[in-house]
Amino acid sequence: MKARFLAPPALSLRFVAVWRRHFLVWKKLAIPSILGNLADPLLMLFGLGYGLGAVLGNLGGTSYFAFLAGGFLGTATMYAATFEALFSAFSRMHVQKTWEAIVNAPMTLKDVLAGEWA
Amino acid sequence: MTAAPLHARGLRKRYGDLEVVAGVDLEIAAGECFGLLGPNGVGKTTTLKLCLGLLEPDAGAIRLLDHDVPAQAREARARVGVVPQFDNLDPDFSVAENLLVYSRYFGLPGREFLPRLPQLLEFAGLAGRTGAKIQTLSGGMKRRLTLARSLVNDPQLLFMDEPTTGLDPQARHLIWERLRQLTQQGRTLVLTTHFMEEAERLCTRVAIMDKDRVIAEGSPRALIARHIEPQVVQVHGQGLDAWAATGGRLAARSERVGETLFCYAADPEPVLAALRGREDLVYLHRPANLEDVFLKLTGRDLRD
């Protein structure tokens, strides 16, 4: 039993079908998703940058706004990518039962996971 | 192909301390409609999942369409269709996209599948709703779409877990008609259900499961003939308490369930004669059905 757990997964090209499913969903949801993920950090940036920036003034030669912008760019990117990937995978697994539907076809959990990963 | 499409022997599956399936044998012949009946939680769904290779049995051997399961489950599932207990259609997609995306999981190229798409939609009665969103469909439509989805790979064998649970009578009759069409096309059906009427109408053979094993098997008619008297008189009403002691003895076998007395007999005439003219009792005389067998074998108590 233990040896089987440790064995490398037998991968097949079937996962492409799973990936194509995700791509089709992404095409439908990309624009609202990009808008949401842009608007949220921008709102914070402008609010904090101009609001708090007006009080703080210059920090070591750069404006507080520019100082914040770099940070927000980083966190927003990482946050959006992680959230989109994890949240949708979880809802596919748990809420929508998409994984369950897929493994009823001649697919395995490995194919599903490879599709999520790709 | 002459071998049975599904052959399972000595299936066992345990979740923790609870043995859900304890030695189930199934042999299903080509072209038959096989019903797996049983109260909730006796392992019907687990049995189906074992047969599909989605769960690994603790013991037992399964052959599904000439493949060993779970070792060659993928090859076997390529020729099997599944209607799950709960609809798991993709809510992000339209009706047609759902079928198309599912066909890809079977490795079917689009040019092969797309010509069959209108036919499948026609079968599901959704020809006019090709582009409709899943959220806008009624429960019956979703169920029909799930049924159509299970047919994308033109399967020889179909597994259906409670195909009509939660549907209104119209939708149920439509599903029954479709299932009959499928058997007429020569496909083999394996279904689980709680509706004894459904099993009696559709199935050529049924197995009744109780407490993790199969306790009776045969055609619905044979089971009724073997396990139960052919006529039933069902009595309820205010005067039942007083009447039950004497009236019950007129039948070959009688059973009190809550406020109803069931009298089973080959000749119900004495019971009926005793009931005639009684205004405080309401009675119904009918032939025995599969539900009587089911209740006799699995008990009338609530199962939890």
What is the mean pLDDT of chain B?
A: 90
**How much strand of chain B?**
25-35%
Number of helices of chain B: 12
Give me the oligomer status: heterodimer
Which sheet architecture does the biggest sheet of chain B show? 6 strands, mixed
Structural class of chain A: mainly alpha
The number of domains of chain B: 2
CATH homologous superfamily label of the largest domain in chain B:
P-loop containing nucleotide triphosphate hydrolases
Number of helices of chain A: 5
Radius of gyration of chain A: 21 Å
User: What shape does the CA trace of chain A take?
Assistant: elongated
Distance between the termini of chain B: 42 Å
Choose one word for the global shape of chain B.
Answer: globular
Please identify, by name, the CATH architecture of the largest domain in chain B: 3-Layer(aba) Sandwich
Span of the ends, CA to CA of chain A = 28 Å
**What is the alpha-carbon Rg of chain B in Å?**
22 Å
**H/E order of the elements of chain B?**
EEEHEEHEHHHHEHEHEEHEHEEHEH
Unreliable residue runs of chain B: none
Total strands of chain B? 14
Number of strands of chain A: 2
Structural overview:
The complex is a heterodimer of chains A (about 120) and B (about 300). A two-stranded antiparallel sheet of chain A has the order 1-2. The longest helix of chain A is centred in the N-terminal third of the chain and has 42 residues, at about 15-55. In chain A, about 80% of the residues lie in helices and about 5% in strands. By secondary structure, chain A is mainly alpha-helical. In chain B, helix 9 packs across helix 12. By secondary structure, chain B is of the alpha/beta class. The relative contact order of chain B is 0.13. In chain B, about 35% of the residues lie in helices and about 30% in strands. Chain B has two domains: about 5-225, P-loop containing nucleotide triphosphate hydrolases (Rossmann fold, 3-Layer(aba) Sandwich), CATH 3.40.50; about 230-285. In chain B, the strands form three sheets. In chain B, strands 6-7-8-3-9-10 form a six-stranded mixed β-sheet, sandwiched between helices. Chain B has a four-stranded antiparallel β-sheet with strand order 2-1-4-5. Chain B has helices spanning about 45-50, 75, 95-105, 110-115, 115-125, 140-150, 170-185, 195-200, 220-225, 240-245, 270-275, 290-300; strands spanning about 5-15, 20-30, 35, 60-65, 65-70, 80-85, 155-160, 190-195, 205-210, 215-220, 230-235, 255, 260-265, 280-285. The model of chain B has no long low-confidence stretch (mean pLDDT about 90).
